[in-house]
Write a structure and sequence with these properties.
heterodimer; A: MetI-like fold; B: Rossmann fold
């Protein structure tokens, strides 16, 4: 019991002291997962929109493939990226292995299928409701895409949060391609695993608390942004009418 | 002019529209009537180009692009935005796609046209409300005002007064009457009294087959000719009696 309370005491001390190594790990985690999320959204959402609007042979097969990729084990993704980026691999000349860039690539590969697989039914649902009407109102594909994105905005926010959650919480891929190098590629999950193994429970727990706090912060921000968008829309309409 | 030449629509194993041939060329309001499941909505969607005939042909002369030809479904489809935005956004898109069409509406910006549409539909008071918070009658008014704002040449309306109270029906009927002054209107209904009030000519469908395409006068005041028309006349009488 004493050990547990001591650990908690040390944990909060570390957090309150703004321990430099701790914050370095947190910032790198956010940078890697945030960048991977950005790429996954830029790649994944247009693909999901395209799959919603176009019919083609083998469509169902592709959906099964995307759903399967959503369940890709991070270690497998890590292994594939490792093979690609290792010195003897096809992209070895870039020298990216054991860098944050390699970690971003691995996480992008890991979470892009999640963005596609979760956004696809969302877009399909909205398209089946409004698609025909948009066409008869004279909408062209370039207008349909942003309209559908706006209609599905609440669901898209959830997709983004789910994808970010998957990225920031995974350990297998970043461990393999990043190597958990101190002050270079060490992120929260790899640090937690290592510190726990070394018996440094206070730091491991501090990082665990930060992980949970980040999830809470992101969810709260999403709600605030959503509320702010609605309020802004109302003000805009009032402005036009005056 | 809308020409259907032996147009059929088969969905699965069911023939929903069977060998319909007719030419709609008169201005005013054409009302498609028939019992539930007779193919009214499918015929409207065929004319709208939202379905393609399985066999036969459908031709609109001169050809019309959306939204010169537009369609208002029986359950209004509105965006998850305010009433104002639901009307102004398609107008802005029309302005970008087809500025010449918009130039016909002199000095009319999408915003001023939206204001006109709100006045036309008498829905100015709900302009700022979220479209999804409206009653079904109000949503139908917004859908009609949006269609009116786009100045279509051919407007297709499916069951515009389904499940609406008499006051709202009267309001919507007056708007549809007003619309015919600026465009050709084809609407469907199973309400025979509404057809009598609005129609200039009537398309009568039964189980996907075109039984009659007659002027309002011919349809509602038939005289016996002692021939085939009498058999049809009996069917129309039965429909009128029980509709």
């Amino acid at each position: 019991m004493t050990t547990f309370s001591d650990t908690l005491h040390q944990t909060f001390s570390l957090l309150l002291q703004l321990d430099e190594s701790l914050w370095g790990i947190i910032l790198l985690s956010l940078k890697v997962s945030g960048t991977a999320l950005l790429f996954a959204v830029i790649i994944g959402l247009p693909i999901a929109l395209g799959l919603t609007l176009r019919r083609f042979p083998g469509e169902r097969l592709l959906y099964i493939l995307v759903d399967t990729m959503m369940a890709l084990p991070p270690v497998v993704v890590g292994l594939v990226v490792y093979l690609l980026l290792s010195r003897s691999g096809p992209l070895g000349v870039w020298g990216l292995l054991y860098t944050p860039t390699a970690m971003i690539i691995a996480q992008t590969l890991l979470i892009t299928p999640i963005v596609i697989a979760l956004a696809l039914p969302l877009f399909k649902q909205h398209w089946s409701r409004i698609g025909e009407q948009l066409i008869v109102l004279g909408y062209r594909p370039r207008h349909i895409l942003p309209t559908l994105l706006y209609e599905a905005r609440a669901g898209i926010m959830t997709v983004i949060l789910a994808a970010f959650g998957r990225g920031i919480a995974e350990i297998g891929a970043v461990m393999i391609v990043g190597g958990n190098i101190d002050q270079h590629t060490r992120v929260m999950t790899t640090a937690i695993a290592m510190e726990t193994q070394q018996g440094n429970l206070a730091l491991a727990l501090a990082l665990g608390i930060v992980l949970i706090m980040i999830a809470l912060l992101i969810n709260s921000s999403a709600h605030l942004i959503s509320a702010s968008i609605n309020a802004k829309g109302k003000r805009h309409i009032q402005g036009i009418q005056r | 002019m809308i020409t259907l030449d032996a147009a059929s629509l088969i969905m699965g194993s069911r023939t929903c529209i069977e060998q319909v041939s007719m030419t709609i060329e008169r201005p005013g309001i054409t009302v498609i009537i028939g019992a539930n499941g007779s193919g009214k909505t499918l015929l409207l969607r065929l004319i709208a180009g939202l379905l393609l005939p399985t066999s036969g042909q459908l031709k609109i002369t001169p050809p019309l692009d959306y939204p010169q030809l537009t369609y208002v479904p029986s359950t209004p489809v509105l965006l998850d935005r305010s009433v104002w935005e639901n009307i102004v956004l398609p107008l802005r898109i029309q302005m970008k796609n087809n500025p010449s069409r918009c130039a016909e509406r002199k000095r009319s910006t999408p915003e001023s046209r939206t204001q006109e549409a709100l006045q036309w539909g008498n829905i100015e008071s709900i302009a700022q409300q979220a479209a999804h918070s409206l009653s079904s009658g109000q949503q139908q008014l917004v859908a009609l005002a949006r269609a009116w704002a786009l100045s279509p040449q051919l407007l297709l309306i499916d069951e515009p007064c389904a499940n609406l109270d008499p006051n709202r029906q009267q309001h919507i009927e007056s708007l549809i009457c007003d619309m015919q002054s600026q465009c050709k209107v084809i609407m469907s209904t199973h309400n025979i009294r509404q057809a009598e009030r609005l129609a200039d000519d009537v398309v009568f469908l039964e189980e996907g087959q075109l039984l009659a395409y007659l002027s309002k006068k011919q349809f509602f005041n038939r005289e016996s000719d002692g021939g085939l028309f009498d058999a049809l006349s009996q069917k129309i009488d039965t429909f009128i009696r029980y509709a």
